Amino acid sequence: MPSQPPSQRRYTPLALPQVQIEDLFWAPRQRSLIERGLPHQLDQLQRSGAVTALEQRPGPLAIPILDWGGTPQMFWDSDIAKWIEGASYALALQPDPALEEKVDALVAALAAAQQEDGYLNTYFTAHAPHQRFTNERDWHELYCAGHLTEAAVARFQVTGKRDLLEVMERYLELLRSVYGPGPGQKHGYPGHEEIELALLRLYRVTGRPEHLAFAQYFIDERGKSPNFFDEEARARGEDPAAYHQGTHQYAQAHRPVREQDQVVGHAVRAMYLYTAMADLAAQTGDQSLWAACTRLWQDLTGKRLYVTGGLGPSAHNEGFSTDYDLPNATAYAETCASVGLVFWASKMLEASGDGRYADVLEQALYNNVLAGVGLSGDRYFYDNVLESRGDHHRWEWHACPCCPPNALRLILSLGSYAYGAGESELAVHLYIQGRARAEIAGRPVELAVETRYPWEGKVAIRLGLESPLPFTLSLRIPAWSRDTRLWVGGEPVQLADCLRDGYARLERRWSPGDLVELQLDLAVRALHAHPEVRDDLGRIALQRGPLVYCLEGTDHAVPLHRIALSQKQVAALAARFKPELLGGLMVLRGEASALDTSDWDTLYRDLPARLQPQPLTAVPYAFWDHRASGAMCVWIPRSG
Amino acid sequence: MPSQPPSQRRYTPLALPQVQIEDLFWAPRQRSLIERGLPHQLDQLQRSGAVTALEQRPGPLAIPILDWGGTPQMFWDSDIAKWIEGASYALALQPDPALEEKVDALVAALAAAQQEDGYLNTYFTAHAPHQRFTNERDWHELYCAGHLTEAAVARFQVTGKRDLLEVMERYLELLRSVYGPGPGQKHGYPGHEEIELALLRLYRVTGRPEHLAFAQYFIDERGKSPNFFDEEARARGEDPAAYHQGTHQYAQAHRPVREQDQVVGHAVRAMYLYTAMADLAAQTGDQSLWAACTRLWQDLTGKRLYVTGGLGPSAHNEGFSTDYDLPNATAYAETCASVGLVFWASKMLEASGDGRYADVLEQALYNNVLAGVGLSGDRYFYDNVLESRGDHHRWEWHACPCCPPNALRLILSLGSYAYGAGESELAVHLYIQGRARAEIAGRPVELAVETRYPWEGKVAIRLGLESPLPFTLSLRIPAWSRDTRLWVGGEPVQLADCLRDGYARLERRWSPGDLVELQLDLAVRALHAHPEVRDDLGRIALQRGPLVYCLEGTDHAVPLHRIALSQKQVAALAARFKPELLGGLMVLRGEASALDTSDWDTLYRDLPARLQPQPLTAVPYAFWDHRASGAMCVWIPRSG
């Protein structure tokens, strides 16, 4: 898999205020997350004790049992941080003084919780001050610092407020004194990666090279021998072999990152690491690091990725298992892991400009990530199964509430994933009705996008320019769009002439008001999985555009597992927009077959089951579990 | 499902010494169990401490940790008992003074362990004398008493020795004083059923009505309200709701047995109970009890039985789960449960004379039970999966060693399951080369059976009589034999004229030397499971005669899960006898298809996998895991 090496980053995302989302697909999701998700999540963080924890000061070492029966959690600061980050994006989308006040209060509480020496982790400060920096393998100090850094960057970018940034600069100074190559320092790295990608974001905002260097240190140090986590364990008087996760693959610390070629261990940890690796490779032009990124990408997408963009099938390690092990009913496929995949894919895309990364970004975003958040904005999946007997539902909250604010911060910052600005180039990665403003050669360019994507494949883009301007407008052509049409100024353009790395590269001297029209092919596809994926043998998954579809029990009179589809029946499926259904969505309708049980009076017999006609309705996977609770399946048995 | 009610028992089994097994299928199995299984099992019982336990006397209450790290087990007496029972059958098959001495010594030790008041349970005597009869729900006093009773009966029947019988009569007298309807008695019943069927065996050997009445009491009392196990728990000061199994379905004590209509709970417990219920119904002509038996039978065979005759899919309760829940890779299907099904089926058959019960008996016996014991006689499966990735193998021993002696005692007493003597009738239930001697109207009848069944379908039976004798010779015609031929004295007999309830009923005045020839149809069948069995959807299982076949990794160059069979390919499968393979067995050979992975460079694609020709070898399930350890599957994907 040759992939363009990132001698320099190909694309820079547009800043959030430069993108308006005005469609009927994402805009309502953003609205529900702002109106209901943010208050709900803050309320839950308050109930759980995570907000009060900010005000705890060093005291008795015993960990209290809270009103709700839980105890303070060492990852709470990260949930607060993600909420602050998400709320900051909300403020970028629409001013809201009341919300801004809440964010300010949390930031003030964080600042007040910072210790004299710069340390900031409310759990360790209050409950385990003597255990600071003693078990990075299992605890989450650097992870929390990473999320707080991201929050600080987002807050600064949106509001210009430097308060949290300054708090974090101080804390990072302390961290740089603790971790590093020096003789008195810990030669270590995070047990849960996150801070690396955050430091790179911070570097780009501040331009301060110590942040780049610190990220680089963590990435380069990871997995060296002797293993840091083992040394740490010995220092605590523990036997490293007694590590409860059994293997340092769990945190991708089993070998140096440039020698890794398989996605392993805890899936969220892996995605955050790879995101930072790709970003660092693009920043520094590090070829060996980029090579590792493309190997790992190939491994994930070639052997270990659900069709929904979910990843990490096993609940055991919240992560990866073996090649082609993609069970449907027990899929863990954590929402956070798919959020992390979007991050990674966006960094691979920014580095290379290759549409294959955008395709996977879109697959994860429109399916696993979106399913993770209910339409109401205040109900969430932690794990995303691809088959259910009716007992899998979104919950209000979770003892480990990583996913809700993670999906929220991604969806509220969606605008920054949709476009990429390059040198004399503006690329459209995701087709979302609205507007984007960029600068090319110091001149303003606006794209006004009209589309009903992903329900319809037509996209019209009108260029707003002050005067004619030569540049390349790159439009992503998803690999799944087989019969794609393109017009500039009403004149058809031969795709073959301009298609490079998954983008139609329209290099022109553009004039104000120029119109580009794209027709993507949203024909329903029946996907087959690689024959080594046992759970999908003899089955197909329906996809239309970026959306994977599923069957739900509520739409069918027979149990879902008895429904089968032939290739012919797939070809006859019709997409029909149902405006009244869950805010409006495109369902697939047609005839399937159902295995007939009426003539069975034994458990086994010589004759196969008869097939009888069965009306079929498929709905986008991202919208499942919003109606009568019942069975669901993505992979449908084939009947020929 | 109308079934002939047992106004009286239709068939009585022949006593073991009346049947000779002289074939190449079962005789070697019996030999290996006698030569290697019995000594191995005794050795393991000695190593584990179960034999030494017989000599323990009341002492300190603390339970010792044994050399091997285990502790004495409250079910050990039952394993000793099953070994004595099996060894007694071995002595019936061939005299062996050394073996007899070992049995005598164990019996003497048991006799010496009996307490003044008749009590006999070496665990409670040595370790928990004050806990006698306080927790029948979880502990195994009556269960052990049942197996010891069976051992006593077998020993007496084979050797005429009354010693163990007398021990047990004394113990049972004590048990009758403890359990019963009287005001000072416990209105209880076993937590693990077994003693009921043993008492019925004892009743038939001794003719003493108190044994019949005691069995009847236990069966009638079971599941009444208030629940005995709950009362017992309260008496111990425990909360009955804290029962770790959660439900009295576990021991089929959730409601009176005559009101039960679903096979539930621990599978071995269930089989032993139903065996006793069927036997009691036949003994007493109890119509409501028989009706419960037929309902439960219909439930088991219609919804909850593996094609291999395995049952109880769940490891969680070692038993039943929900209708049609028959997972292959995680099948528990304990060997003991299938042994118990053989017991139950034989009692249903004896009661009704209906061949449908013999069909299931044979299915369980030739597949799940037989697989449970390795060809060497000293390796055993506890759980019998129908699909393995290569990590499921027979073991030498198990901390709960119920299965090895259970399968052993069944296989060594196989002769008594093969024939049934009725009024003026002799029935052949199982076709095994050898001889059977019975008496009809006081006159001796011998059947000399020649057959290579189950490898071949031809069966020749020559009648040995002193003089002409009118009686009915009933030959079982398995339901799976579609094109069955029958000849008497070389003359074809129309099956339709004589087939009743699954048997060809040949009512004749038979003469010495008369020859009956039967040709069963051993065509390979592709079985389909009821569409509600999710794990078998789109799959077929191969069966030839009574034998279910499976694929093993060692015979195939591609992973088994990629192999698929069409109906046409099934029809072309050829049975070929391989004399050199595992002592000689019939394999199925032919062409299948394998999903081709060579042209896959993605995880998902629009085109289905190509099929390529793939030589296929199927071996009987009972013989799997005897060669290179690898994958195995019974249910093979269909390719059309």
Task: For the record, give the distance between the C-alpha atoms at the N and C termini of chain A, rounded to a whole number.
Answer: 34 Å
Gyration radius of chain A (Cα, Å) is 25 Å
What's the total number of strands of chain A?
24
Query: How helical, in percent, are the residues of chain A?
Result: 25-40%
Tell me the overall shape of chain A: globular
Largest sheet of chain A: 10 strands, antiparallel
Low-confidence stretches of chain A: 1-5
| Biggest interface | A-B, 38 and 38 residues
Query: Please, what is the oligomeric state?
Result: homodimer
Instruction: Give the strand content of chain A.
Output: 15-25%
Total count of helical runs of at least 4 residues of chain A: 17
* Number of domains as seen in the coordinates of chain A: 3
Structural class determined from secondary elements of chain A: alpha+beta
Task: Give the overall average pLDDT of chain A.
Answer: 95
Question: Can I get a quick summary?
Answer:
The structure is a homodimer of 640-residue chains. With 640 residues, chain A is α+β, with helices and mostly antiparallel strands. Chain A has three domains: 12-254 and 357-373 and 381-414, no CATH class; 423-519, Sandwich (Immunoglobulin-like); 525-637, no CATH class.
